[in-house]
C-alpha cells in the first residue's frame, strides 16, 4: 500500500454558533492514500463538508492531528496554510466561488499567479480549453451559466496540478445533465493528472464512482467501505 | 391606505439599517445649507436691528471735501439731533516713527447711539479733552503697539501734538465704516482746526449723523434731502441699511457658500443614489416575488418611491435640526468672530430653502434607480437575483429627472440672486459630474485593458482587475471623492493665484508709496527732493479731486447702472492738458493742448464698456458740491492692477484747474530706503499722507484670507460628505471583499497579498479621483482668475499635489478601514455561509 497523503487522528471540531458551542466533528481518525478517490457522504449536518474544510486547512481543527503529505497542518498559521494549499491542493465548491471581478481566464490563472508561475496565462488557457471553455476566457462569472462557472472552477482547481483535489458537492447547484457532465469532467481531470480526489456528495451514484466511500453521521464515521472490504 | 403604502410600510419594518449613508449624505448637505442660511439671516437681522448703531444715527448725509453750509446744517437739524464727524487718512507720528491712521474727528454729540469703549475706562469727552494743555486722542491698540506708544505719550497729527488718553477698543459705528487701510484714531474735530490737515483740496469726508424722532418717515426724509441738497454730490444712508457694503458682502459670500453647499448636496447625491441602488439590489428577490404574484412595474416603483420618500423626509428633517441648531450652539463663537452684530435665531426662510434643495436633490438622485426597478422581472427569481437594477428608466422618468434638475438650478439662481454665477456653477458641477462619470468608465476600461497585459505584476493586476471588473465601486468612489476634491482644488487654485497676484506679482512693479494730500505748492519741491535720492527710480504725480457721477446722459447714474462700482460712490478725478506720456487712447480723440472749451472727459475704456458708454455721451460729475456736465470724447486704457496711478475719469485741465485740489503721487523706490523716505517727507511736509503699498497689500491679503477661509470651510463640508460616501461605498463593498479575501486565501494568497491588493485598488481609485479633480479644479480656477478676476493664472503645484495625495489617502484610509474583516475571517466561515 502506498503512503497515505492524508492522516487524521482523533480529530474534533467545535464551532461557536448562535446556539452556543456545537460539536461538529467528534474524534475522526482515518487515512487517505495517494491516488485514491474518496467519497464523503452523509445527511445534511453530518459534518462531511466541515471535514473537507479541515482537510483543506480552510477550517482549523479544535483538537487532533491533521497531517497532509507528511506535514502537520495544525500548527500552521493562516498564511502557511494558504501557501500549502497553493502548492498542493485544488478546491471545488458547490457555489463555484469564482471572483466576480475577474474574467474566467483570470480566475483560472489566479493560483498560478499566486505561485509566481510565469506561464500562468498560457497554462490557464490550456486548462480552459480542456474544460471546453476556450472561447469564454474574457467573460466575467456573471455572464456565464452555472455549469460554465463550475467548469471554470474545475479548471482553476486543477491548473496547478495539485496532489490533492477537494470537491464539496460540486454538482449541488447544477441540473442533473450539467451535473453529470461536470462530474465526468472532474473524474476525467483527476484521471489525467493522477491527483487524490476527496469528494463530498449527497448523490449515491456519484459516491459509487469513488474507490472508497466514508459515511458520516453526527460528526462521526458511520461506515468506511475500505474497512468493510478489509473485513 | 393604498396597496403601495401598505407594502412600503411592511418593507420599512426591516428598519433603517443600511441607510445611514443615505441619511447622512442628505442630512449633511441640507445642514450645511441651512447653517449658512441661518448665519446669513442672523447677520442681516443684526444689521437691520442695529442699523442705527452701526450707522451712528438714524440717517447720515456724507459730503466729500467740505463741511456743510449753514443752510444745509439747518436742514439736517430740522430732521433731529445732529452729530458732525470728519473722516480722513493721515499719519500718526511719534519721534521718527509714523503710521497710517484713519482719523475720526467728532463733536460733543458723538456717538448718537451706542458707546465708545476705552481703556482705561473713561467718558469719551474726558478722553478727547486731553490734559496738560494737549488735546486728547483715543488710538486703536494695534496702532499703539505698532508705534510703541503708551497712554500718556504724545503723538502728532499734521503739525499738532495730541496726548494719548486711552486705547480705542471699540467704536459702536465701526462696522458701518467699511474697509480702511489704517487703524482709527479718535479726536475732537475742534482740535483738528489748527493741525494743518483740513486745508482746501485735502481729501476728507464729513458725515452728518442725525437722530430722528422715531416716527419720522425715513423715505420721506430722504426725498426731502434729495430736494434740498440736489447737485451737491451728497450721499444719504439711513438705519434701514446701515452698512450697505457689509450687507452686500454678506449676501454675496453666503450666496457663494450656498453654491458650495449645493455641490456638497451633489456629492451626497452620489451616496444617496448608491444607497438606493444597493437597497434595490438587495430587494431584487422581493421585487421579483412581487412581480411573480402579479404586481405591476408601476406598483413596485411606487412601493420603493414611498420608502425612499419617507427616508428623504427623515434625512431632510435631521439636516434642518442640525443646520438650524449648530449656529445657535456656536452662537458666542460666531458673534465673537464677526465684526457685525448678529441676531441668532431659528428662521423659517433659510430652513425652507435648505429643505427645498434637499428634497429636489433627493428626488433627482433616487428617481433614476427607482425608475430602473420597474425593469426587474419575475424571472430574476431564478437567476441573477443579486445583480440589482440595470438599464435605462422609462423616458418619462428621464424627463422628470431633467425637470427636477432645472427646478434645482432655477431655485438656486432665484434664491441666491446670483443668476449668472449660479448657472456657471451649476454648469461647472454638471460638467465635473459628467467628466467624473466618463473618467470612471474610462478608468475601468483602461484597468481591464492593463490587467490583461500586466501579467507579470500580480498584485497590480489583481487590483486593476478589481477596478475594471463589474460592480459600481469605481464609479461611486471616483465621482463622490472627485467632486468633493474638485471644489477643494478649485478653491486652492483660486486662493493661491489671488495671493500670488496680490502679494507676489504686484510689488515687483508696484510703487513703494502712494502719497496723497500734496498741496499744489508742495509738489515741485517734493518731487525735486525725492528725485535727488539715488534709491528713487520713478515718481508719478497727478492732480486729484474726488467726484461723484450723478447723471449719465441726464438720467440718474444709480438708475443707469446701480451695481457698478464706478457710480457707487465718489471716485478720483484728475485733469490734464496735454496727453500724458504713456496714455493709450483706444477710441476718440484727446482734447488739444490749451483746450478751453466745454468740459470734456476721457473715460477708462473697460469700465465705459461695462457701463455701456459711447463717445459723445454726457456725464454729470459732482465735484466739491458743483455739478459739471461734460462730454466723453475719448476712451483710455487704464490698468489698475499694476498699482500705478489710474483714474477712471480724466477731464480737460480748464474744467477743474480752478477748483481747490491736491496732488497724488506714487514713489518707486528701493525697499531699504522706504523708511528714510517716509521720515524725511513727513518732517518737511507733515500734512501729507503716505500709504505704504506693502502694508496695504498685507491688509488686503488679511481680508482675502478671511474670505478664503470661509470658502475653504464650505469646501471642506463638501469633502466630509464625499468622505461619508467613500465610507459608505467601502462598507457596502466589505461583504464582497470578505468573500474575495476568502477565495484568494483558499487559492493560496497570503494576508499580505490580499491587503496589498485591497490597498492598491483603493489607491488607484483615489489617484483617479484626485487627478480628475485636479483637471476640473484647475479649469475652474483658470476660468475664475482669467474671466472673473481678469488676472493671470498659474497652476499651484503645491495645492495640486495635495489634492492628489488627499485623494489617495482618503481612499486608502476608508478602504483599509474595511480591510480588517476580510483579512481576519477564516475562509471556511465565509465559503460555508455562501453555500
UniProtKB/TrEMBL annotation, chain A:
Gene Ontology terms: cellular component: membrane protein complex; plasma membrane
UniProt entry keywords in alphabetical sequence: ATP-binding, Cell inner membrane, Cell membrane, Membrane, Nucleotide-binding, Transport
Any Pfam family the entry gives: ABC_tran
Database matches in PROSITE patterns: ABC_TRANSPORTER_1, ABC_TRANSPORTER_2
Keyword Cell inner membrane on entry: yes
Domain ABC transporter: 6-230
Family assignment from sequence similarity: Belongs to the ABC transporter superfamily. Macrolide exporter (TC 3.A.1.122) family.
Matches recorded under PANTHER family: IMPORT ATP-BINDING PROTEIN, TRANSPORTER, PUTATIVE-RELATED
Name of the protein described by the UniProt record: Putative ABC transport system ATP-binding protein
Organism: Litoreibacter ascidiaceicola
Species lineage: Bacteria, Pseudomonadati, Pseudomonadota, Alphaproteobacteria, Rhodobacterales
TrEMBL record, chain B:
Membrane topology value: Multi-pass membrane protein
One Pfam entry name: FtsX
GO-annotated cellular components: plasma membrane
Transmembrane segments: 256-280, 301-334, 354-371, 392-415, 421-447, 764-789, 795-820
Subcellular location: Cell membrane
ABC3 transporter permease C-terminal domain ranges (all copies): 260-370, 716-823
Record keyword Transmembrane helix present: yes
Keywords of the record: Cell membrane, Membrane, Transmembrane, Transmembrane helix
The keyword Membrane is assigned to this record: yes
InterPro entries listed in its UniProt record: ABC3_permease_C, Membrane_comp_ABC_pdt
Name this polypeptide is given: Putative ABC transport system permease protein
Organism of this sequence: Litoreibacter ascidiaceicola
Phylogenetic lineage: Bacteria, Pseudomonadati, Pseudomonadota, Alphaproteobacteria, Rhodobacterales
Amino acid at each position: 500500500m502506498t503512503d497515505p497523503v492524508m492522516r487524521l487522528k482523533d480529530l474534533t471540531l467545535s464551532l461557536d454558533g448562535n446556539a452556543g458551542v456545537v460539536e461538529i466533528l467528534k474524534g475522526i481518525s482515518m487515512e487517505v492514500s495517494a491516488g485514491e478517490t474518496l467519497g464523503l457522504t452523509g445527511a445534511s449536518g453530518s459534518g462531511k463538508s466541515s471535514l473537507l474544510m479541515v482537510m483543506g486547512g480552510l477550517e482549523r481543527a479544535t483538537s487532533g492531528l491533521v497531517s497532509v503529505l507528511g506535514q502537520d497542518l495544525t500548527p500552521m498559521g493562516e498564511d502557511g496554510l494558504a501557501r500549502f494549499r497553493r502548492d498542493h491542493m485544488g478546491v471545488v465548491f458547490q457555489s463555484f466561488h469564482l471572483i466576480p471581478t475577474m474574467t474566467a481566464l483570470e480566475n483560472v490563472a489566479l493560483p498560478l499567479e499566486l505561485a509566481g508561475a510565469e506561464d500562468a496565462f498560457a497554462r490557464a488557457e490550456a486548462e480552459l480549453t480542456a474544460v471546453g471553455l476556450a472561447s469564454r476566457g474574457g467573460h466575467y462569472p456573471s455572464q456565464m451559466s452555472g455549469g460554465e462557472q463550475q467548469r471554470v472552477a474545475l479548471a482553476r482547481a486543477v491548473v496547478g496540478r495539485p496532489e490533492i483535489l477537494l470537491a464539496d458537492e460540486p454538482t449541488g447547484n447544477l441540473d442533473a445533465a450539467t451535473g453529470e457532465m461536470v462530474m465526468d469532467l472532474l473524474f476525467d481531470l483527476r484521471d489525467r493528472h493522477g491527483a487524490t480526489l476527496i469528494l463530498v456528495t449527497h448523490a449515491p451514484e456519484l459516491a459509487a464512482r469513488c474507490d472508497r466511500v466514508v459515511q458520516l453521521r453526527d460528526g462521526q464515521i458511520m461506515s468506511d467501505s475500505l474497512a468493510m472490504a478489509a473485513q | 391606505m393604498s396597496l403601495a403604502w401598505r407594502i412600503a410600510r411592511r418593507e420599512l419594518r426591516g428598519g433603517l439599517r443600511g441607510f445611514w449613508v443615505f441619511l447622512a449624505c442628505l442630512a449633511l448637505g441640507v445642514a450645511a445649507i441651512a447653517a449658512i442660511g441661518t448665519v446669513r439671516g442672523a447677520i442681516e437681522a443684526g444689521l437691520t436691528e442695529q442699523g442705527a448703531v452701526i450707522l451712528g444715527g438714524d440717517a447720515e448725509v456724507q459730503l466729500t471735501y467740505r463741511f456743510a453750509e449753514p443752510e444745509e446744517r439747518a436742514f439736517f437739524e430740522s430732521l433731529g439731533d445732529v452729530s458732525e464727524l470728519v473722516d480722513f487718512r493721515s499719519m500718526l507720528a511719534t519721534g521718527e516713527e509714523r503710521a497710517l491712521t484713519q482719523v475720526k474727528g467728532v463733536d460733543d454729540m458723538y456717538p448718537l447711539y451706542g458707546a465708545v469703549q476705552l481703556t482705561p475706562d473713561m467718558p469719551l469727552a474726558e478722553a478727547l479733552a486731553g490734559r496738560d494743555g494737549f488735546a486728547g486722542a483715543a488710538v486703536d491698540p494695534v496702532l499703539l503697539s505698532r508705534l510703541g506708544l503708551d497712554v500718556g505719550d504724545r503723538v502728532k497729527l499734521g503739525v499738532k501734538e495730541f496726548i494719548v488718553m486711552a486705547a480705542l477698543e471699540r467704536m459702536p459705528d465701526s462696522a458701518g465704516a467699511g474697509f480702511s487701510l489704517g487703524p482709527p484714531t479718535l479726536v475732537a474735530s475742534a482740535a483738528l482746526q489748527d493741525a494743518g490737515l483740513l486745508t482746501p483740496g485735502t481729501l476728507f469726508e464729513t458725515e452728518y449723523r442725525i437722530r430722528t424722532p422715531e416716527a419720522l418717515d425715513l423715505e420721506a426724509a430722504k426725498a426731502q434731502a434729495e430736494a434740498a441738497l440736489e447737485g451737491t454730490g451728497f450721499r444719504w444712508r439711513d438705519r434701514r441699511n446701515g452698512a450697505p457694503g457689509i450687507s452686500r458682502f454678506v449676501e454675496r459670500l453666503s450666496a457663494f457658500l450656498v453654491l458650495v453647499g449645493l455641490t456638497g448636496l451633489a456629492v451626497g447625491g452620489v451616496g444617496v443614489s448608491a444607497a438606493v441602488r444597493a437597497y434595490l439590489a438587495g430587494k431584487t428577490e422581493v421585487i421579483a416575488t412581487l412581480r411573480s404574484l402579479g404586481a405591476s412595474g408601476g406598483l413596485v416603483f411606487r412601493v420603493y418611491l414611498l420608502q425612499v420618500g419617507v427616508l428623504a423626509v427623515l434625512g431632510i428633517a435631521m439636516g434642518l435640526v442640525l443646520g438650524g441648531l449648530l449656529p445657535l450652539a456656536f452662537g458666542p463663537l460666531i458673534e465673537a468672530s464677526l465684526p457685525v452684530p448678529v441676531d441668532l435665531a431659528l428662521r423659517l426662510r433659510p430652513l425652507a430653502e435648505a429643505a427645498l434643495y434637499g428634497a429636489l436633490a433627493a428626488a433627482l438622485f433616487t428617481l433614476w434607480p427607482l425608475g430602473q426597478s420597474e425593469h426587474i422581472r419575475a424571472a430574476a427569481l431564478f437567476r441573477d437575483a443579486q445583480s440589482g437594477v440595470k438599464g435605462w428608466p422609462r423616458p418619462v422618468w428621464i424627463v422628470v429627472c431633467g425637470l427636477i434638475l432645472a427646478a434645482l438650478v432655477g431655485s438656486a439662481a432665484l434664491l441666491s440672486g446670483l443668476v449668472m454665477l449660479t448657472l456657471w456653477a451649476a454648469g461647472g458641477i454638471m460638467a465635473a459630474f459628467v467628466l467624473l462619470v466618463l473618467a470612471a468608465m474610462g478608468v475601468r476600461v483602461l484597468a481591464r485593458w492593463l490587467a490583461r497585459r500586466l501579467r507579470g505584476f500580480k498584485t497590480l493586476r489583481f487590483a486593476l482587475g478589481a477596478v475594471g471588473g463589474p460592480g459600481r465601486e469605481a464609479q461611486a468612489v471616483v465621482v463622490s471623492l472627485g467632486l468633493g476634491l474638485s471644489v477643494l482644488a478649485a478653491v486652492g487654485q483660486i486662493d493661491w493665484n489671488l495671493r500670488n497676484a496680490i502679494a507676489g506679482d504686484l510689488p515687483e512693479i508696484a510703487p513703494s508709496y502712494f502719497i496723497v494730500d500734496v498741496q499744489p505748492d508742495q509738489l515741485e519741491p517734493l518731487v525735486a527732493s525725492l528725485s535727488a535720492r539715488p534709491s528713487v527710480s520713478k515718481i508719478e504725480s497727478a492732480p486729484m479731486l474726488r467726484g461723484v457721477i450723478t447723471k449719465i446722459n441726464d438720467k440718474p447714474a444709480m438708475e443707469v447702472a446701480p451695481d457698478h462700482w464706478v457710480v457707487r460712490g465718489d471716485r478720483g478725478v484728475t485733469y490734464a492738458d496735454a496727453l500724458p506720456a504713456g496714455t493709450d487712447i483706444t477710441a476718440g480723440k484727446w482734447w488739444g493742448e490749451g483746450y478751453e472749451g466745454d468740459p470734456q472727459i476721457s473715460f477708462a475704456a473697460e469700465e465705459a464698456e461695462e457701463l455701456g458708454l459711447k463717445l459723445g455721451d454726457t456725464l454729470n460729475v459732482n465735484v466739491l458740491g458743483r455739478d459739471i456736465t461734460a462730454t466723453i470724447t475719448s476712451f483710455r486704457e487704464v490698468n489698475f492692477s499694476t498699482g500705478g496711478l489710474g483714474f477712471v475719469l480724466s477731464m480737460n485741465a480748464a474744467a477743474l484747474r480752478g477748483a481747490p485740489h491736491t496732488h497724488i503721487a506714487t514713489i518707486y523706490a528701493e525697499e531699504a530706503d522706504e523708511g528714510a523716505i517716509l521720515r524725511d517727507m513727513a518732517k518737511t511736509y507733515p500734512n501729507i499722507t503716505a500709504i505704504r503699498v506693502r502694508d496695504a497689500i498685507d491688509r488686503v491679503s488679511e481680508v482675502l484670507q478671511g474670505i478664503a477661509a470661509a470658502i475653504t470651510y464650505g469646501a471642506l463640508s463638501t469633502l466630509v460628505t464625499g468622505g461619508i460616501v467613500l465610507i459608505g461605498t467601502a462598507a457596502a463593498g466589505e461583504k464582497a471583499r470578505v468573500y474575495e479575501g476568502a477565495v484568494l486565501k483558499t487559492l493560496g494568497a497570503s494576508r499580505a497579498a490580499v491587503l496589498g491588493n485591497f490597498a492598491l485598488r483603493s489607491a488607484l481609485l483615489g489617484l483617479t479621483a484626485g487627478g480628475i479633480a485636479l483637471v476640473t479644479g484647475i479649469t475652474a480656477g483658470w476660468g475664475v482668475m482669467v474671466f472673473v478676476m481678469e488676472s493671470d493664472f498659474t497652476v499651484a503645484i503645491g495645492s495640486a499635489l495635495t489634492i492628489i495625495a488627499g485623494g489617495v489617502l482618503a481612499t486608502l484610509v476608508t478602504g483599509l478601514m474595511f480591510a480588517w474583516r476580510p483579512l481576519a475571517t477564516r475562509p471556511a466561515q465565509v465559503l460555508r455561509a455562501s453555500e
